[in-house]
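Appendix B. One record, verbatim.
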Amino acid sequence: MKPTYFISDLHLAADLPRVTQGFTQLLAKLQSNAQALYVLGDLFEVWVGDDNLSDYNQQIIQCFKQLTQSGVALYFVHGNRDFMLGEAFATACGGQLLAERTVIKLGEQSILVEHGDALCTLDEKFMAFRAQSRNPLWQQGMLAKPLAERVQIAELWRLQSKMQNSNKPENIMDVTPQAVLDTLQQYQVTSLLHGHTHRPMIHNITLNNGSTGQRIVLGDWQEETGSAVIGIADEQGIRLEEYLF
């Protein structure tokens, strides 16, 4: 069986040419050679609406379209940067927009996939903004603004986020362990795969019922080093692998 791939936190932007090139190279490599590709959030640095049909965004859509036309299934999950990604974008790519949290089957194993930001419950300011920005009425109000204004607002958020994150303690920036355990219990699975924290690793964890579970964390894509950590699932199970570009 062909492998299934998982990526997150590309933060694609026109001013990140190396990451963009790495993305296009990976998708070309996966054409006809993968079962599925899951994009677990923060595909873009910012996304202000599916009506933003810039040349750059259309380039990204075309890459995904070529992937899905080769027979690879494509799935998207919202991140904290691209939470306004919509059905129109997913459809244009030939993919499917999943719920915030989705249990998928990989062989005999059930695994919960998500972006990971909802697990960072100690970051109260972020969680408050997250709740506001996921509100459909709030999103409708944002989408009603002219595209140019939305782009300006998003750039402001981007700067504010960088400033705020530089002053936050490390433990606040990571997932809350109990939130992980409670989420796995809620969905009745033992494995979780996510991104967001930019701390790639496979963690073996003790679940609420005393059994052993696994938390698999993908890495972000780095312009400076031309590297990322992606997930690959095949007959041997799920592993993390460094991808150089």
